[in-house]
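job 3f2a | input accepted
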Amino acid sequence: MKLSQTNGPVLHFYDGDERSSLVHLKNAGFKYVDISFWSRYTSGSRYFTTDNKVLADEYKRYLEELELIPVQSHEPFGNSMGNDGGAFYFRKTPLSIDLAGKIGIPSITLHAGLETSPMSREEYMEKNVEIFRSLIPYAEKYGTKLLIENTSWKNDGIHLATADDLNEILDRIDHPLFGVCWDTGHANLCDLDQYVELTKLGSRLEGLHVHDNFGGKQTPNCDLHQPPYYGNVNFDAVITALLEIGYKGTFNFEADSPVWRNVIPFVKDGEEQRKLRRMPATLRQEAEIYLYKIGKQMLEAYGCYEE
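job 3f2a | predicted structure (307 res):
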């Protein structure tokens, strides 16, 4: 199994410069990358004003130059069921799917919409099926897989938190371009047995977001996105299940720095000290190197590490 990491958590260290974020991952040892559009489509962003072919050519040039292979991507931040009726979401997510296709990224991860007023489970499922199916024409243009991510809200029985939920919505959508991206941190916040969940998904699992936290019982709603070993996710259950189901994707991290948030808390206030309050990019680079080493050690222990 190959290792990959998203460039999303490091973009802000380089003032949003995409190439620098990819250099960062390259220098850490990653050959395979997840391209995050999560923070790219904001009001006034050039992602709304620049032709997708221009943006795609930039990404392809960076990837070729750095000898990196994109294996996944992630849609922009937004709620398809938001107070604006999802209008802003539907401006940017179709653009991001088209951009992923033009770059040649095989899949893009999508979030389920979150209701802004009370809904029954049936209403919630029907609305999300409608939303997801509306994105099919954009995916079909390049054959881009649309991977629905499990949420971290299990207790109310509505949201797409479990393998059963995800299998049900895929059955309802009934289209070959849909699959699942399993988020280990979200599953841990729901205190799920990840071996059971992943084996239920089987071949429908086509992507991963690998990260750690302390679970819903100990730290509810704390989606920390920490590297493995910085929480209590049962990665033996995860990797054993991946091997059993013949998972074909990469062991893809969506992990942030092991120093939570990006502020060094003991630095005093003041103009001269202000620049020290943020973790330097050089220190974050060391954290990424460590992340790669963690992933390599984990996969080597199961005899499945691939260069």
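job 3f2a | Confidence is low (pLDDT under 50) at residues 260-264.
job 3f2a | closed
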